[in-house]
Design goal:
Layout lengths: L1 H18 L4 E10 L3 H9 L4 H4 L1 H5 L4 E5 L8 E6 L3 E10 L3 E10 L3 E11 L5 E10 L4 H4 L1 H25 L1
Length: 172
């Protein structure tokens, strides 16, 4: 009987801790790429290049990819399905001369939605500061408990992705 009380106490403690954890996450990383704003924006807004620099897509090269719509326009979409990367899609929601807004939808291994926001700022001649931001909800209780781990992993993947993007764009 003591075991049951201890177990219930542990469950209640976990639920209480998760209730005070953040409900949302936000990750943001930036880098400077030695190419013009237009050249950099072309590589992010044209999802035909997505698998070449995105670290998640590189984890599962055998995943199936479907690209639809016109590059750099609303509705342009990259959808994937794979054993390691699950199933989901990235769709341009809006675009202007310095920003690209994406909707990110995950279907497997679990359903969730996030927003990707890209900002492109012309620095000195031939340089562009690129900022990649991602935000979403952390459902209660498990995702909130895993929030710090999610943030750490996303920060690492964003650094890797921006480095890959920088190498690809500067090499072209």
């Amino acid at each position: 009987m003591i075991f049951v009380y201890l177990f219930l106490g542990l469950v209640i403690a976990i639920l209480l801790v998760s209730s005070v954890m953040p409900k949302k996450y936000i990750v943001e990383k930036s880098t400077v790429i030695n190419k013009s704003l237009g050249e950099v924006m072309d590589k992010v807004g044209n999802l035909n290049y997505y698998a070449a620099w995105n670290p998640w897509q590189q984890m599962d090269p055998s995943s199936t990819k479907t690209i639809t719509g016109t590059p750099k326009t609303r509705g342009h979409q990259y959808a994937w399905h794979g054993k390691k990367v699950g199933e989901g899609s990235l769709t341009i929601r809006s675009i202007d001369k310095n920003h690209i807004y994406f909707d990110l939808e995950f279907l497997k291994p679990w359903k969730s939605h996030a927003k990707d926001y890209w900002m492109f700022e012309g620095e000195r001649k031939g340089e562009t500061r690129v900022t990649w931001q991602n935000s979403g909800d952390l459902p209660w209780p498990m995702a909130r408990l895993m929030g710090p781990i999610i943030n750490k992993n996303l920060n690492h993947q964003f650094e890797k992705g921006l480095n890959n993007l920088k190498k690809m764009v500067e090499g072209s």
